[in-house]
Amino acid sequence: MIPLIIDTDPGIDDAMAILYAAAHPGLDLIGLTTVFGNVPVATATRNALFLAELAGLAIPVAEGAAAPLVRPLAPYPDFIHGAEGFGDLPPARPAGRADPRPAARFLCETVAARPGAVTICAIGPLTNLAAALALDPSIARNVARVVVMGGAVACPGNVTPRAEANIFSDPQAAAAVLGAGWPLTLVGLDVTRQVICTEEDFAGLARAAPVTGGFLERAARFYLRFHRERHGRDGCTMHDPTAVIEITDPGLFETRETALAVTLEGRAAGRTRLASAGPAVRVCLVLDAGAVRARFLAVTGKADAAR
Fold first, then answer.
1. Of 33, 51, 237, 264, which one has the fewest beta carbons inside 10 Å?
2. pLDDT in tens, 78-111
3. What's the CA gap between 31 and 214, in Å, rounded?
4. Is 90 exceeded by the pLDDT of residue 307?
5. By the 8 A CB rule, do 87 and 79 touch?
6. Are the CB atoms for 38 and 85 separated by under 8 Å?
7. Catalytic pick from 81, 99, 170, 239?
8. Is 99 in the active site?
9. Looking at residues 234-251, what average pLDDT do you find?
């Protein structure tokens, strides 16, 4: 099994990614770290605790950054995820409490305790990962892999014409993370936009797994409505689950190794672009979208049985 930490800002598609990871027999979800992004960090922590409990996991949840390293905090996208993070659903009420360690410390200590074993999947702004690198640079040598949902290398952005939301939220952190020289794979809009799940897909999840799938079906109604009203699409993009599926099913993806740079300021802030020098990053540019969708539905449909 792959020991996995997910760095997250839940968020509807974050919930999909976390519940998929919890249900997958090849993943050992050993912790969650939280960051501002879709919601304030305190809400992200509350939501992460709830998702861990919903999945039947007794794992640490460590709260991280409340704001970017340098730039001002952007408005939260409540029109996509709802004010509480799970669409129209009321605030989550988890029973547990967050780990006392800040997220960066939790990441560094957990990776150091199991050198070469732990994978980190970041599906929110990259502020916690940048803080971990600053706290203990040896994390770059000790981590097994880092998989980032973020960026738009050969396609338009989703928050500006050039920038994807997670990178745009903290470009300085993204530049530090993409330039750290650790084994990093970028799963960005180039591929995640191609993976679509429909209202019927979520209804099927609710039938297959009434507890976890039922929660996702209810939360996804808001997300589906946003995509229908904003993009005229009968279905929602599966950004965050696609990043986790790259870990479990890398054969469904084709990657290119290249150096990347991040534009830090100005109208193109948050843009991820090819660079002529720097550490190589594996960038996902092609995937089997139908197989990724089917994998998500098959695994998450068994989430109740895995609790």
1. 264
2. 999 999 999 999 999 999 999 999 999 999 999 9
3. 23
4. no
5. no
6. yes
7. 239
8. no
9. 97
Tokens of 66: 């409340």
Q: Is 143 left (phi over 0), alpha (psi -120 to 50) or beta?
A: beta
Using CA atoms, how far apart are residues 63 and 66, in angstroms rounded to an integer?
9
172: tokens are: 């300085």
| Measured distance between the N- and C-terminal CA atoms of the chain, rounded to whole angstroms | 17
Provide the β-strand partners of residue 32: 6, 61
Which of 9, 14, 170, 249 is the catalytic position?
9
- Whose tokens are 């209810």? That residue is 218
Structural domains of the chain, ranges and CATH numbers in brackets:
2-306 (3.90.245.10)
The encoded tokens of residue 56 equal: 């039947």
Residue appearing with tokens 């209202």: 199
Of the candidates 38, 276, 36, 239, the one whose C-alpha atom is nearest the C-alpha of residue 155 is: 239
d(CA 69, CA 159): 19
Amino acid of residue 187: V
Backbone angles phi, psi at 96, to 5 degrees: -85, 175
- Let me know if 239 is a catalytic residue: yes
The type of residue at 236 is C
pTM value > 0.90? yes
Token pair 């006392």 is at which residue? 100
